Amino acid sequence: MREYGVSPLHLQRVAEVMETNAPVIPANLQVDGFFQRLADQDAVLGRRQDWPIVDDAGRLVGLITRGDLVRALEREGSENDTVLDAGSTRLVVAYEDELLEEATAKMLEHDIGRLPVVRRDDPAKLVGFLGRAGVMTALLQATREERVRDPGWLSARLQFLRARVARLLA
């Protein structure tokens, strides 16, 4: 028999699993310069698929993906384009206090794998980044906790009775 439990997506907030130190890209960085950093195997930027773009004041103004970067490099006349020109400024975001269920629904609805996390009272204030890995970590943690259950008060008594019955049958 299977027991029913509450999904961790219904219990945990975005702030509990989001990445808090995601690297950001300055809006005025040229696409060629950004590509060169990736080509030089920048350890911080290279392992990512997308990056938040911030203005001079550190405010979230966009997001650029690897796909955006490739399209910008292939487009003729894009030599002077900035990452903001190449990226997206219409963002789907998550909030720190939002349930993971709501954030993952946004990911599925918009077919995206990561969400910038912003403050609800200041949507340009980037506080984190939520990706599939954060969501999967929450699910994995819940699965591990499920496997390690407290035996309960009746377990010791049942073990005693099983041993007693085994002695009687022997």
Description:
The protein has 170 residues and is an alpha/beta fold. The chain has one domain: CBS-domain. The chain contains eight helices and six strands. Strands 1-2-3 form a three-stranded mixed beta sheet. Strand 2 and strand 3 form a beta hairpin. It is elongated. The mean pLDDT is 86.
In short, what is this structure?
With 170 residues, the chain is an alpha/beta fold. The protein has one domain: Roll (CBS-domain), CATH 3.10.580.10.
Write the layout of secondary structure elements.
Elements lengths: L7 H4 L2 H4 L7 E2 L4 H9 L10 E5 L5 E6 H9 L8 H4 L7 E2 L4 H11 L3 E6 L2 E10 H16 L6 H16 L1
Parallel strand pairs: 1-2, 4-5
Antiparallel strand pairs: 2-3, 5-6
User: Secondary-structure element sequence?
Assistant: HHEHEEHHEHEEHH
Strand count, sense and barrel status of the largest sheet are: 3 strands, mixed
Radius of gyration: 24 Å
- Order of strands across the widest beta sheet? 1-2-3
User: What is the domain tally?
Assistant: 1
Instruction: Please indicate the percent range of residues in DSSP E strands (runs of 2 or more).
Output: 15-25%
E-strand count: 6
Please tally the helical runs, counting DSSP H or I stretches of 4 or more residues. 8
Structural class by SSE content: alpha/beta
Q: Kindly provide the name of the CATH class.
A: Alpha Beta
Measured between the Cα atoms of the first and last residue, the distance is: 31 Å
Q: CATH homologous superfamily name?
A: CBS-domain
Large-scale geometry: elongated
Ranges where pLDDT stays below 50 over 5 or more residues in a row are none
